[in-house]
Amino acid sequence: MIQVVEWFFGRGLSMGCGLDWNVPKHWKALRREEQVTKIKSVIPQEMSKTHIVTRDIVMFLDILADQTARGWQHRFHTTNWDYLLQREVSRRFPVGTIKPWWLASSQVYHHNGTAETPPGDTFRSQLLLETDPQAARRLSPESDSAFEKLINSRLFVVVGMSFECAVDRFLFKALKHVQEDCPVGESCWIVVNPSTSTLRETHSNILDALPAATVCTLRTDFGSWLRSKLPELIKRGALTC
To answer: How far apart are CA 45 and CA 52, in angstroms?
Structure first.
């Protein structure tokens, strides 16, 4: 039986690549639709700037290609609006080519929407703002597909995020409802973040929703963890030395 590592990436991944853009404060006075339009316009411009370097993502994909143990695969999720990770995955495995055995899906699940969603797309989730309440989230084929996979997984890695804003906390609220009946209820979570306070918050948010889960916190940045060859995943059998 194939086991899957579910990877969750937050802003820490983008910032490690040099993409540290934030929504300008004065935009928050605009109508929501105007903010979304501006965000979708600006992010591709920010991604194309010369200082953006995706070597951590490249190193990450190289490690998975070289070290993933037989019987394991990887699936990627993000709450970021940018598509730096999806772009690197698509460069390696263009549409129409056969994906490698270690990759559960060549699609990166964007739980809060993405700036690359084409007009008329009916699969992707809508773009959600950090100021949106939980009620703003709408079901989509993407979110349905992602949730079905998450509840049946047992190993998660969280990089550079805390699930603190309302739209992110919705995921744990949903997982809490099914945790007694699904494998996710007894899952293992590896949380990677250089911030002690964020590690503490993420640890608390996970156990509040999944009290039977195991949480391992690593106070380090993603690049440093990659250079150490991800020993925690080797220990759990997902990667080889």
So the answer is: 11
CA dist., res. 76 & res. 46, Å (int):
22
Residue 181 has which token pair?
A: 């009946």
CB 114 within 8 A of CB 107: no
Q: Is the Cβ–Cβ distance between 112 and 163 less than 8 Å?
A: no
Query: What's the fold here for domain 3-17+53-235?
Result: Rossmann fold (3.40.50)
| Sequence-ordered alpha helix ranges (H) in the chain | 11-16, 32-47, 55-67, 84-92, 141-150, 166-178, 196-209, 222-227, 231-235
- Which tens digits make up the pLDDT trace of 38-84? 999 999 999 999 899 999 999 999 999 999 999 999 999 998 999 99
The pTM assigned to this predicted structure is 0.91
